[in-house]
Design a protein that fits this description.
about 200 residues, alpha/beta, TIM Barrel, eight-stranded parallel beta barrel, 9 helices
Amino acid sequence: MNLQRGLYAITDTTLLAGRLANAVDAALKGGAVLVQYRDKSADTARRLEEAMALRMLCRQYHVPLLINDDVELCVAVGADGVHLGRTDGSLQQARARLGEDAIIGATCHDSLEFAAEAASNGASYLAFGAMYPSATKPGACAASLQTLADARRFGLPVVAIGGLNIDNAAPVIAAGADCVAIISDLWSATDIATRAHDFSQLF
């Protein structure tokens, strides 16, 4: 499955408590091209229920749904793929489990070495960040605009994440990001659909 350029919406358990489906629906209406369900809790039943609801919602909009760090949940709900951090398991094992058509994203931080490794192990896209200081991951190492530009050499879509908002995303896109992954600035917006549309217009 090919990735479109644009807004990559990543869910947040705290920000979206009680309004997950409605908020994601608004982001999709506004033009999000990719959704990641990210929930680090141990509430297996709720995670399954929410992921299934998002899977059905994303299917209506013909937008891929990825699951953060959980290959088996991806399989259980029939999601389109997973995003794996550096310590979240093997890309090769995920590819073997999910098949050739699955979207598998890989966290690369600010490392072209990590990116080369991920590309050779079957990643579908390479994610770099934090681009700016991030409230979601306050300890994340900083990634540079130059790294985004250099990562084009791998021939895979490049995703930028971390501290991005509607006011600082344009330089990241200009540097080579195919997608901007947004959490706080999207879900905290008064009008999520409009904020999603504004991000989409940057592309």
